[in-house]
Amino acid sequence: MMNPRRGILRWIARHPRSPGVLLLGPAGLWLAAFFLLPILILLAYSVMPRGAHGGVTPGFTLEHYRRFFDPLYLGILRRTVWLSLLCTIACLLLAYPTAYFIARSGRRRNLLLFLAVLPFWTSSLVRTYAMIFLLRDSGLINRLLLDAGLIEAPLRLLYTEGAVLVGLVYGALPFMILPIYASIEKLDPALLEAAEGLGARSWARFTQVMWPLTLPGVAAGCLLVFVPSLGSFVVPDLLGGARQMMIGNLIQNQFGSARNWPFGSAAAFAVMALVMIAMLGVIRLNGLDDTGAEHGTGPGRGA
Amino acid sequence: MTARRAPFAVSLTAVLTYAFMHLPLLVLIAFSFNRSRFGVQWGGFTLDWYARLASRPDILRALRLSLVVGLLSTLLATALGTLAALALARHLPRARRAAGALLYLPIVTPEIIAGVSLLVLFSWLGIALGITTIVIAHTAFSIPFVTVVLLARLQGSDRSLEEAAMSLGADEFATFRRVTLPQLMPGVLAGALLAFTLSFDDFVITFFVAGVGSTTLPLAVYSMVRKSVEPTINALSALLVIGTTVAVYLADRLARGSARA
Amino acid sequence: MTRHFPSRREFVDAALRAALAVSVAGPVLSACTGERRPPAPGLEPELNIYNWFDYIGPETLAGFEEEYGVRVNYDTYESNEEMLGKLIAGATGYDLIVPTGYQLTVLRDRGMITRLDRSKLNNWDNLMPQFQGTPPDPGGEYAVPYQWGITGIGYRADLLPSAPDSWGAFLDGFAQGRATMLDDMREVIGCMLRYRGHSLNSIDPAELDRAKVDAIAAKTRLLAFMTQAVRGQLASGDVIMAQCANGDARQAQRENPNVAFALPREGSTIYVDYMALLSNAPHPAAATAFLNYILRPDIGAAISEETGFGTPNRAAQERMRDPIPYPTADELTRLEYERDLGPATALWDRIWTEVKASA
User: Fold this and answer.
1) Which of B204, B78, B77, B221 has the alpha carbon at shortest distance from B136?
2) pTM for this one?
3) Which ipTM value was assigned to this complex?
4) Range of the domain at A192
C-alpha cells in the first residue's frame, strides 16, 4: 500500500498509531497550552498570598479557600446553583416538547433544526440587549400592555430575578434542544408502537419508554445548560440591575475592582470543581459516548 | 420515520418556544428602523441609525478588528481541528472516548473561567494583552467545535474512494491531498464558518484578554449597552444577527450538501 | 459527481490573500481619510489615550491631530478599577490615562506614572490655584487635573414631591422604588458613612458595619445599581432619583430640563480626574504636548461643555456660558476626597459583597 521508498512512510509503517498522534498533536498542544495550563496556573494562584496591589506573591496559603468557605460566599454559590437549576428545569420543560416536535415534523425537519440552532450562534450580548429592550419600563412589552389597557402602570419586569432567569433561559435553550433531539431521533418508533399495541396509554408510553431511552440526551442537555449558567455575569449585571451577586459577578469583581486575583482564582476553582462533578455525573449516566454523534450542531445531520 | 403527529400541547409548547427564541431578535431588528429615538412608538421608517454607525470611527475600527481576529483564529482553529478530527476518527479509535470527554471540557467550561485563567496565564508569562492574545484565546475555544463538527461528518464517511486511490499506487500524502481533503472540504468549510461566528460574536473571553486598541465589536456593543438604550445599538445588533444567520446558513448548506455527494 | 471543491492549496491561498487584504486595507483606508501633516518637530507620530467613555470634547482629538500632526488612538473603559486592573495585568502601549484621585497614589507607588515635565507645560497656570496641588498630588507633579466632579442626588423635579436633601432619601422610600445608586463600592458605602456623620474613608469596623446595614436597607428600595446608564434613565423617567455625579445630571438635563441635582446636607465625595503619563509610554513627547494642549482655555472649555463636569481651568471657566460653579466654601466643608484604603480594601470588599448578596 505505501511506497516503502519514502523514509517517513517507513517510519509511520513501523509505528501504526503515529499518524494519529501527529495529526492530533498540534490541536492537543494548543489546548494543553491555552486551556489546561491556564487552569493549572489558576489553581496555583489560588493558593498563593495576595500581593500588594492585587496580584500574587510567592508562597503557599489556604487562606483564600478558608475565606471562601464562609456563609457569605457559599451563599452566593448556593444561590447561583439554585438559579442555574431553575434555568435548567425551565429549559427542559420547553426543550423536550420542542425536540419531540422537530423529530415528528417530517419534511420541515431541517428547517426547524436550523432555526433551533441559530440563536446559539448569535452574540450573547445582543441577546441580552434584546431582553433589555423588551422588558424595561418603557420597553415593548409594557407599551403593548398599556396600550391594550390591560395595565395602568408599567410592570416592573427588568432588574428582577425573574428577568435574570428569563435571560439565562433565553441564552441556553438551544443547548438543551439539540442533545434531546439527537436522542429522540435515535429512538426506534417500533418500540413505541409495540407499547401502544400492548395497551399503554400515551402518558405511560412517555414515562416508560420514551423518557428512559432519551435520558442520555437529557443529561447532556442539562449539563450544557447548567454549567455555563453558573458562570454567567453579564446577565445578572444588565438584566438584574447589578442587585444580586452571582458567583460570576464575584469572580469578575475580584479580578476587577476588588483587586484580589488569588481569591478570585479560589472562587473560580470552586466553580470548576462543581463543573467536574456535574460532568462526571453525566458521563457515568451516559457512558463515554461518541461526542461526534451526540453533540452535533444540526447541520451535520443531513444523511 | 414517524407516523403520528405530536399531541396538541406538545406542538403548542414547541411553537411558543420557537417564538420565544426568535421574536425578541426580530423585534430588535424591526426597531432599528424606527425613526423615533426614545420609547417604542413607531415614528416612521428610517435608515439613519445605520448611517450613523457607518460614520463612527470607533465602530468601524471595532468591526475591522473583529474581522481580522475572526479570520486568523478561524484559519488556525480549522486547520488544527480538522487534523484532530481526522486523527480521532481514523487513527485513534480507542482514544476517541477519552478524547471525547476532554474535547467536551472546553465547550462545557463556563466562559468566565476560561477568560480569567487566560488572563492569569498571559499575566504570568508577561505577554501583553492585545490582538495576539485575543486570537490565541479564540483559537483555543474554537478548536473543540470544529473537531466535533468534523467528527460527525467523518463518522459515516465513505472510505472507498481513498482505498481505491491507494490501491492505484498513491501514497498517504497524495491520497490525503487529492481525495480525502476535497471530500472533506464542505465539512471543513462548515466548521470554519462556525469557528468564525464563534469568534466574531464572543464577548466574555474577549472581555478579559483584550488590551490596547483591541476593542472588538461585541466589546463596543457592551460599552454602548451599559450607557443607554437607543436605536444605534439596535442597528448594530441587527447587522451582527444578520451576518451570523448568513454564515450559519452557509455552513448548514455546505455540511448537508456534502452528505449527498 | 463532478463538483469542483477547492483544493486545500487554493483554499488556503484565497484565505491568506483575504486576510492580507483586510489587514492592509484597514490602515490604508484610515490613512487615506485624513491628509495629515508630518508630526511637529520632536513629537512621535502617534499617541494612545485610555480614557472614560465619552469623557472628551467632540473636536478635541481631531483638533490635536490637525495642529500637531499626531495620530491619536483613543480607547475607553467603564470603570477606574477596570483600567487599573488592565494596567496591572500588563496592558502596555498606552501613553495617557485618566485615573481618579486616589488611584494616583497606587499608580505612583507602583512607579507606573512618571513625573511631569512642567517646563513643557506652559499652560499650567491656567489652572485654578486649588487645583495646582490637590490632596492626591500635593505638588502638582504627577498629573494634570482634567475634570472635577461631586457625587450627589440627581432627580426629576417634576416627578418628586420635593427636592431630596439627604442621603436618607434612599432609606425612606422617597422615590417609590424608582431610585438607583452607583454600582461603585466606594460611593455606596461612602455615602452611608457620611449619612451617619463619619468619614467616607473610614476603616473603622463598627462604622463600616453600620454603613453596611444602611446600604442593605437602601438596596431593598432600589431599582438597580447603575452607573453609566443613569443619564438616559433620568431623562426618560424610568429613574426619578439617582445617586450620580453632577456631570451626569447635567447631561441628563440637556435631554430633559426637569432633571435637577442636589448635594445632600451630610456631604459627599469630591473627586478630581487627572490625566497622567505612564512610565512606559511609547510616545512621551506627544503625550506631554497633549497635556499642554488640554490646558488651553478653549480646549478645556470644550471638554467641560461636552462632559458636563467641572473644569479645573480658571481660564476655561471664564469662557464657558454656563459653567458648573466650583463648590462654595460652605459646601467644601462637607466634601471629601477619596483616599486609597490600602489593606482595608479587603474589609470594604467583604462588606460590599454582603450588600450585593443580600436578598
Assistant:
1) B77
2) 0.82
3) 0.81
4) 83-244
